[in-house]
Amino acid sequence: MDIKTKALYDYLIEHTPSFTQEWLKCQEIRTGSHYSLDAPPEIQEKIKEQNGKYFKLMAESLFRNEQEMKKAISDWTKQTASQRANSDTSLSEVTRNGGHFRRLMLNYVERFAEQTEHQVTIKDLMDWVQKMNIAFDYVMETFTNNFLNILLDRLSSQSNLINELSAPVITLTDNVGLLPIIGDIDTTRAKSILETTLQQSTEAGISYLIIDLSGVVMVDTMVAQQIFHLIESLALIGVQTILTGIRPEVAMTAIQLGIDFSEIQTENSLKRVILTLAKKLNRDLETGHE
């Protein structure tokens, strides 16, 4: 590292506290955000500490090679992205504040050039600005990727949970389960219903599964195929399926589409099918059959 770059680095590190104070003045009140002026004192102190580390990280980019710079920045953005994602701080706020940070830091580079006893040339300034801009760009690239990946993972987990909750197998007896399906069924949800139903039926050890379609307002060819696929898969693991709750309009649509439910056991009343199964199971117990 040459003498002038070392002098600039020392200048930046020395002025870290004043830089942080100037940066904080750029903030607004955005309740819930870590960057908000009304953030709790402990959050504000944490932000100041992180800001100082970020400032030092950018100063160190002046003398680090590309590999070292990227490694240091990746470690830092991975941590801070997780913290921002767990608050109400939006990506747009992070980007806006990143812009404030970049402009202020380049202002400090300009102040150094004006105040130092060293002879700073245009080439020196351009080299410093170029290195810092490359580092700033890499910060935003890695922070955005980490931030979005965290949010996407969270959305995926929530979606999986919703799908599981929207297709629960309810155990009625030791042998009988009920699967109420509510709402529209697309390809993704149909796949989820198939996987969770097979798993839950196996874990519950049931022999009969009642699939209640009273909450399904539309059945098309794709939905019918998925229902057939589910019934066939359940049969392979020894679970007999009974369909109930097919609404009149759904039945009419099925007929118009040429969907054939004749090979599948159907009932028009959930109550009736439960009573029928209960009687059958009682008879089996009395005669000693499983």
Could you give the topology of this structure?
Blueprint: H1 3-14, H2 16-24, H3 41-60, H4 66-85, H5 91-115, H6 122-165, E1 170-171, E2 176-182, H7 187-204, E3 208-215, H8 221-236, E4 240-244, H9 248-257, E5 266-267, H10 270-287
Helix pairs in contact: 1-3, 2-3, 3-4, 4-6, 5-6, 7-8
Structural notes for this entry:
With 290 residues, the chain is an alpha/beta fold. 66% of the residues lie in helices and 8% in strands. It is built from 10 helices and 5 strands, in the order ααααααββαβαβαβα. It has a 5-stranded mixed beta sheet with strand order 1-2-3-4-5. α1 packs antiparallel against α3 (41-60) and α4 crosses α6 (122-165). The longest helix has 44 residues, at 122-165. The radius of gyration is 32 Å and the shape is rod-shaped. The model has no long low-confidence stretch (mean pLDDT 82).
Identify the overall geometry. Answer: rod-shaped
| Percent helix | 55-70%
Radius of gyration, CA atoms, in whole angstroms: 32 Å
- Cα(first) to Cα(last) distance is 83 Å
Summarize model confidence as the mean pLDDT.
Answer: 82
Number of strands: 5
Largest β-sheet summary: 5 strands, mixed
> H/E order of the elements?
HHHHHHEEHEHEHEH
Strand order of the largest sheet: 1-2-3-4-5
DSSP summary: helix tally: 10
Structural class: alpha/beta
**Per DSSP, what share of the residues sits in E-state strands of 2 or more residues?**
5-15%
User: Which regions have little confidence, pLDDT < 50, spanning 5+ residues?
Assistant: none
